[in-house]
Write a structure and sequence with these properties.
Helix 3 runs antiparallel to helix 4, helix 3 packs parallel to helix 5 and helix 4 packs antiparallel against helix 5. The chain contains 5 helices and no strands. The two termini are 14 Å apart. It is mainly α and 151 residues long. It has one domain: Membrane associated eicosanoid/glutathione metabolism-like domain (Four Helix Bundle (Hemerythrin (Met), subunit A), Up-down Bundle), CATH 1.20.120.550.
Length: 151
């Protein structure tokens, strides 16, 4: 009974198109990053760790870094979209996140420091900070969406 009430009060979960498309694209990219790790593991017959191979280590870290940052960004995007609906800012953020994660993965395969890795990491941090501030602002500025107190 609570889920339908939340869906009605927050604009409905079915309207989260920006977050849904961003998550879908990011899911495909995550698969590609995973597959690239598996390719090198099979080629070098390495089951665990990086076996001392720098190229494998960089792929493992690109995959892990994606897993560390993208979920919280998607959660923030989804919560913001539930509060505001689809906005140009949120749509741009989703596209930019996806592109920055590609750029970061490219940079992880190159000698450090390099502009791809820096741009991917810094851009992701800026998105994370921006969405976090936006979420906090929305939490304190949209009292119309507040749920009734628990009985």
């Amino acid at each position: 009974m609570v889920a339908p009430v939340l869906a009605v009060r927050l604009g409905g979960f079915s309207h989260m198109m920006v977050t849904l498309v961003t998550a879908g694209c990011c899911g495909l990219l995550y698969f590609i990053l995973s597959f690239r790790v598996v390719q090198l593991r099979l080629a070098h017959k390495i089951n665990f760790g990086d076996g001392g191979h720098d190229r494998l280590m960089s792929r493992i870290r690109a995959h892990a870094n994606f897993a560390e940052y993208v979920p919280i960004v998607l959660i923030l995007m989804g919560l913001i979209e539930m509060r505001t609906g689809v906005t140009e800012m949120l749509t741009s953020t989703g596209v930019l996140l996806f592109l920055l994660r590609i750029v970061h993965a490219i940079g992880m395969g190159r000698a450090s420091p390099n502009p791809f890795r820096v741009a991917g990491a810094a851009g992701t941090w800026i998105i994370l900070i921006g969405l976090s501030v936006w979420a906090i602002f929305l939490a304190y500025s949209h009292h119309a969406y507040a749920l009734p107190p628990a009985v």
